[in-house]
Design brief:
This protein has about 150 residues and is mostly helical. The protein has two domains: about 5-60; about 65-154, Winged helix-like DNA-binding domain superfamily/Winged helix DNA-binding domain (Arc Repressor Mutant, subunit A). Helices cover about 65% and strands about 5% of the residues. It has helices at about 5-20, 35-60, 80-95, 95-110, 115-120, 125-140; strands at about 140-145, 150-154. A two-stranded antiparallel ribbon has the order 1-2.
C-alpha cells in the first residue's frame, strides 16, 4: 500500500474478514494446521489489498473534472481564458466514461499509454484509440479563430 493509513485500513478489513470466516477454516485433517492457517490468512490479506487497490483506481480514474483543476493555473489569465476553461470542462464532461478516463489520465495526469492500459485493464491500442476519439470529439466543437489565433467554441 502507498501509505500507512491505507495499509492500516487493509489490515483492519482483512482481520474483520478473517474473524467472520474463521468458522469456515478447516484444519482438522491437516498435518501442520499453523502453516495452513498462515497461508489462509495471507491469501485473505492479499485479496483484501487487491480489492482496495482496484477500488482506489476505479475512484481515481472516474473522478469528474472540476473547475478547480483549471483555476489558478496561470495568475494572469484573462476573463476570456476563464470562459474557455469552463467551456472546455463542460465539453470534457460530455465524453463517454472510457474516453474521459483515458483523456484525463493522458492529458491532465500525464500517464503513458502503457500505464493507462495497465491501470484500466485495457490494451495499449485501446488506450490510444480512446484518446484519439476523445480528441476528435473535442476538436469537432473547436474552431480556429482567425483574428486572435485562439481556439473558441462554435
Amino acid at each position: 500500500m502507498s501509505s500507512y493509513e491505507a495499509a492500516a485500513e487493509v489490515s483492519n478489513d482483512a482481520f474483520v474478514k478473517i474473524f467472520k470466516a474463521f468458522s469456515k477454516f478447516d484444519y482438522q485433517h491437516a498435518s501442520n494446521p499453523e502453516m495452513l492457517l498462515m497461508a489462509w490468512m495471507r491469501r485473505i490479506v492479499i485479496n483484501t489489498a487487491i480489492d482496495h487497490i482496484r477500488l482506489a483506481q476505479a475512484q481515481k480514474n472516474h473522478y469528474p473534472i472540476t473547475e478547480e483543476i483549471w483555476e489558478g493555473r496561470e495568475p494572469e489569465t484573462r476573463s476570456d481564458d476563464q470562459l474557455l476553461y469552463k467551456e472546455m470542462i463542460e465539453l470534457i464532461r460530455k465524453l463517454s466514461p472510457s474516453y474521459r478516463a483515458v483523456f484525463n489520465m493522458y492529458v491532465i495526469d500525464g500517464y503513458s499509454h502503457q500505464e493507462i492500459a495497465e491501470t484500466l485493464g485495457i490494451s495499449v491500442g485501446t488506450s490510444k484509440s480512446n484518446l484519439a476519439r476523445a480528441r476528435a470529439f473535442l476538436q469537432k466543437y473547436l474552431v480556429k479563430d482567425n483574428k486572435d489565433n485562439v481556439l473558441c467554441f462554435t
